[in-house]
Amino acid sequence: MLRRSSRPLAAGLLAGALVLTACGGPDKPGAEAGREGCIRHFSPDKDYFPVKSKVTHAANFSLRYEKSYQILTVRQPYPQAAPESYVLVKCGAPAPHLTGELAKAQHLTVPVRSLYSASTTQLPLLTETGSAGVLTGVADGTQVVSPDIRRKVDAGRISQYARGGTITTEKVIGAHPDVLVAAGFDDPQYPKLRRAGIPVVSDAEWLESTPLGRAEWIKAMAALTGTERRAGQVFDGVVAGYTKAARAAAGPGKPVKVLSGSMYQGTWFMAAGGSYVGRLIRDAGGTYPWARRTGTGSLQLGFETVYAKGGDARIWLTDQKWRTTADAGAANPRYAHLAAVTDGEVWTNTKALGPGGGNDFYQRGVLHPDLVLADLTAILHPDRLPGHRFTFYRKVPRG
Q1: What is the CATH number of the domain that holds 201?
Q2: CA 224, CA 126: separation in Å to the nearest integer?
Q3: CB 257 within 8 A of CB 226
Q4: Based on the domain organization, do 327 and 377 belong to the same domain?
Q5: Residue 123 domain-assigned (yes or no)
Q6: Residue 12: is its pLDDT beyond 60?
Q7: Please, which pLDDT band fits residue 81 given cuts at 50, 70 and 90?
Q8: Is residue 234 part of a domain?
Q9: Strand 115-117 vs strand 179-182: parallel, antiparallel, or unpaired?
Q10: What is the DSSP string of 261-277?
């Protein structure tokens, strides 16, 4: 899975446990750590996690620290799934004595040396913590935006293991990465990989309902790579930027009415009010007719319904790669009747595209909702962020 759309846990939710193992380089190896961060002389009384991540916004994962291992629990690894826990043992420490569900876990350790990524949304979590060197596999490199990672893919230093969306199981087993980080969806190949000794850990950030909750999954990735300190610094910066943009948007006056989404195969997919996109629009000082719908997914609506309730919105936020508004009319003649097309503004989140067509809005934008919110605030309230330089959104010229 290359692109994804848009709850602290009770201690007992430790189903489907898995323990990961590998050696690598954490933020600051202690005096008793070996050359690559592994513990050289183990002491059961020593705390080997001097830097600990604290989860403050994400609701779908939690971290619990012991002295030589930590437990990463994902409440919903994919829709309707039972919780899964992964025991991450510090390299060089003995396997812990586990009870209950965790007693069935495999005994492996972290930080990992080689990581296969199932989603391009995970790549900024590695690049911005300085741990991209552990990346040895991506599902499909054509959608990668990062120039450095693309160069490694093109040079064959990073493998592509799921071109066309289908995992080549033999290829993954042959490479035997320390971990495959899944994309919050199940796959029939995952049990085969686990039986072959390859841990599969779920990165289910797309099931978070808030932008900062999604961004905080950088801390889950940091648990695998030993980059807790840097992950905390990055996330604190995101929170500060998001707060600043939200304050700029929270000025006087009524919320600005917008239209969001677009048609796909005859259906308009509209973000529910409780969704990631819905929260961004609200925090940017905007509103739309479905903002009170509390679901976290997308609403499937007919064009007539959208036009009747939202056709008068003068700003349309979409994800289409249109060069001009004439392209919108060519894609669907009914779009030409929308106020945003005839005498308003159409904005698309396709400003930062990679050479293969990958959209950085769905990569770096997931980690940086602060930059997304700043763009939206400047669109809805241009006077509140004068001179703003857009990162992900661009205005579609009239044509």
Answers
A1: 3.40.50.1980
A2: 10
A3: no
A4: yes
A5: yes
A6: no
A7: very high
A8: no
A9: parallel
A10: -EEETTEEEEE-TTSHH
**Predicted pLDDT at 21:** 42
In whole angstroms, give the CA distance from residue 161 to residue 193: 13
Q: What is the mean pLDDT of residues 296-306?
A: 93
Element of type H or E holding 168: none
Residue 219 lies in a domain: yes
Amino acid at 77: P
Structure tokens at 87: 């025991």
The reply to whether 108 and 43 lie within a common domain is: yes
| Least confident segment among 270-279, 306-315, 365-374 | 270-279
Mean of the per-residue pLDDT values of the chain: 90
pTM: 0.90
Q: Do 223 and 262 belong together in one domain?
A: no
The whole domain housing 39 covers: 18-227
CA 294 from centroid of its chain's CA atoms: 21
Domain count, the chain: 2
The torsion defined by the Cα of 280, 282, 288 and 291, in degrees rounded to 10, comes to 90
CA distance 252 to 306: 28
Judged against a pLDDT cut of 70, whether residue 72 lies above it is answered with yes
* H or E stretch at 109: strand 109-110
Looking at residue 11, its pLDDT comes to 31
- For residue 11, tell me if it sits in a domain: no
